[in-house]
Amino acid sequence: MLLKLVSGLVLLLSMVTSVIATPVDTYEFKSPDNQKRALSLAHSLRCPQCQNQNLIDSNSPVASDLRLEVFKMVDEGKGDDEIIEFMTSRYGEFVLYKPKMEAKTYVLWLGPIGLLLIGLVIGFIFIRKQRISGNTPQEISVEDQQALDTLLKRNSK
Predict the structure, then answer these.
(1) 110 vs 42, 101, 105, 118, CA distance in Å?
(2) From CA 69, how far away is CA 116, in angstroms rounded?
C-alpha cells in the first residue's frame, strides 16, 4: 500500500515538474553587452500570440522565433529603434508594452487623465449640491404634516 502511494507521488511530482519546465534558448551572443541589450529589448516586446506575456516569458513558437530574431538583429549591430520599427511594421503597435505618443494613441495616453478629471468634476458637483440642499430646510405640505402626525400617533399607542 505504501509503495503504491510513494510511486503515485513520484509520478505526480514528475508530471508537475515537466509542465513547469520551459525550453531554453541556447543562443550565443558576440558580447555580454549584446546579451543584456537583447534580453532587455525582448522583455519590452509583447508576444503577438500570447495576450500579456513578453517574448522572454512566453513559450509559444512565435515568441521563440521572435526572440531569436531579436537576438540576431542585436548581434548584427542594429539599433533598438530599428528593431522596434521592424517588429511594429510586422505585428503592429500591439507588440509594444509602451506605445509611442502619436495622434492615434492620444486616447490611450490621455484617456485615464480625462476620465479622472470628469470624475472629479462630477464629484465636485455632487458634493456641492449636497451641501446646498443640506443647508436649506425642506418644507412639507399641510396634508403631508397631518398624515405624518397621524402615523406617529398610531405608532405611539
Answers:
(1) 27, 10, 8, 12
(2) 41
